[in-house]
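Researcher: Hi, I'm a grad student and pretty new to this. My advisor asked me to get structures for two proteins we've been looking at. I'm not sure of the right format, so I'll just paste the first sequence and hope you can take it from there.
Model: That works fine. Here's the first sequence with its structure tokens right after it:
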Amino acid sequence: KSMKWLIEAAENGHPKAQYNLGSYYKMGSNITQDYDKAYEYYIKAYKLGSPTACEKLGSMNERGESIRENKSTALNFYKEAITRGNLSCWANIGSLYLATNISNAKKAYKKYLNEAVIDIKIFHTVFTPLSTQLRYHNMDKNDFNEIFFMLKPHKEILLKTAYKMLEYVKENQPELIISYRDELILIESEL
């Protein structure tokens, strides 16, 4: 019944309902997963000013979900989200640049850490992409350290999130335990 109301509100032009319905379609929560419909509802919410819809559209463009992967379009959506007040998108921009322009990645991460409200997102949008670049893409150790040590003031939230993620993967994705355990060790021993 609540899904019916959400769909009705989204169809009547309520941006928060459009964003939420897009998220349900993207995740397949209480509805059949459909990236095309997710993108459609995020676009509707974006056109009505939603900063979180900008972020989701950036993410979908970055990953090629529903549409062809387009990093340039993703970057534009992330920048638009920032102008609309979603300062955490600085982390998305940092991650986007991590493999191609380390100087811009550092600048974006600094802006994120200085301007955004820091929450568990720091683990997923800064720490995990950073450790992945180091582990699998031969990131320069000095560049890694420069960004990594910017995270030092946020060690507690990183540890808390790392422990939660480790518990989650133990139960749901045991094949990832080693990766998450290594990330936890890195945070505990190096920060």
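Researcher: Oh nice, that was easy. Here's the second one.
Model: And its structure:
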Amino acid sequence: FLQKSQGKLWMHTSGGALLLPADGVAWEMVAQTDAGTTIQLLAASPSLLYATVNGVMSCSEDGQAWTAVNLDDDENLFPFTNHAATYYTQSNGTARVILTGSCGETTATWYREEDEDEPWLLISRTGDNDYNLPWSSLKEGSLVDYCSKIIAIGKSASTYYSTDNGVTWKEYTELTLGSGQQAADGEHIAA
């Protein structure tokens, strides 16, 4: 699992190590999961890493010292697995981190603004919203901030975007790849 923060690329391995590249080829261990500590990297912003540390949502500047961060809603709705995250800088200069993923049969999208001690906030879903992100259908999805949109893309044939900070999502009805290009596994991107 890779995240970019503080101009560095951070990697969390399945064995529990948190790594930084020393020279672009060799990686150095920053933190290691041991018998008493479990770290799972979830997201990053320009200045902070976000992870669960012993099951508690936390943030860190250096990957070694972690501070607990609250969730404003039911922890059972937080996608600790099968998720993706991105961040962008708002017009007021504050970073906003968006994290979305599957919680059972439901897609949950959360965000955190880094202006104070704000908790992670769940973007509320009521009723049968036709504009929810169908995360599980994306197959190994990723999020990226691009051109004032949050784009969700995966190995499936569909790509979605949000222009309102992840509240609603719409499917791109047509994407054009350059001449001779195709999607992974020979799948089409255009819907």
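Researcher: Is there anything I should tell my advisor about the second?
Model: You could mention this: The longest strand covers residues 95-103.
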